[in-house]
Amino acid sequence: MMGLYSIRMRGAEGGPHEEGGRHISGAERIVEEHDLESVAASLIHRALQHSKGKSDFINIRIDAVHDEDIAYVDCIAIDEHQTESVKESHELAKELLQSVVTNKAVEQAFTELGQLPGNMRGAILLDANTGVRLDQDNMRGVRVSHMDACGTEIRPMNVHMREALVLATKVQSCPGIVGELCWSDDPDYTVGYVACNGVYHRIPNMKDMGNPIGGRVFFVDINRPIHEIVDYLENITVLVRW
Ligand code: AMP
């Protein structure tokens, strides 16, 4: 097998993130060497053409990855739901999550996402039983990284869905995590999802059109040190098999 590289992009407006710039776009891929240049070009395009604005700072980082450090995971199943309103979608999401999370924790997740003052960079970790927040409780959250898919795609899908499915599959493969709730921070994209029991439940109308705030919650159900969960999500390379 040819050598693989992790390529990660983050773009911000008003300067670098670490100097207070506003996050515009971030994305990453794991690709073979001969695809690096074209993938870099498409990531730059995204940083410049995002509906949230135009990045004036773009960082691209490339690291070789060694095959022995890669975990291969099968893509989770997809279930598409139809709904008519945000209210109906949230009720459906709560119902689906209640197979793995207490009512209290589900309600807490919606409260946390509903009162975010802006977009977090990562996800909130919640105890699936008590609803207590387990991460550092700031606007950074836990940022899942080092993942992509390999092989031929199972079906046509837009870039949002592809990335969400890869992320949700990595998160579902993490021992200790039983569920996920998400909607996008892209003002034009109102589809969200719930992932649990090995299924990605794609749900339309998870927020109102034009709303620029999104978020993610991961529900943790076993007594496992949080730093181990965070380390898996942030640092272990996962390739999803379609
Ligand atoms: P997106 O679906 O990319 O619009 O992201 C929606 C929300 O999920 C963002 O506002 C972040 O709070 C969170 N998020 C985005 N990317 C990640 C990631 N790689 N890991 C964890 N949370 C993320």
Give a written overview of the molecule.
This protein has 242 residues and is an alpha/beta fold. The protein has 2 domains: 4-65, no CATH class; 72-241, no CATH class. The chain has 5 helices and 12 strands. Strands 5-10-9-8-11-6 form a 6-stranded mixed β-sheet, sandwiched between helices. Strand 1 and strand 2 form a beta hairpin. The chain is globular, with a radius of gyration of 17 Å. The mean pLDDT is 94. Adenosine monophosphate (AMP) binds at residues 119-120, 122-123, 143-144, 167, 182, 184-186, 214-216. Its cofactor is Mg(2+).
Order of helices and strands: EEHEEEHHEEHEEEEHE
DSSP E strands, number:
12
Bound molecules: adenosine monophosphate
Distance between the termini: 18 Å
Query: Which residue ranges are poorly predicted, with pLDDT under 50 across at least 5 consecutive positions?
Result: none
Mean pLDDT: 94
What number of domains? 2
What Rg do the Cα atoms give?
Answer: 17 Å
Percent of residues in helices: 25-40%
Biggest sheet features: 6 strands, mixed
Name the overall outline: globular
Strand order of the largest sheet: 5-10-9-8-11-6
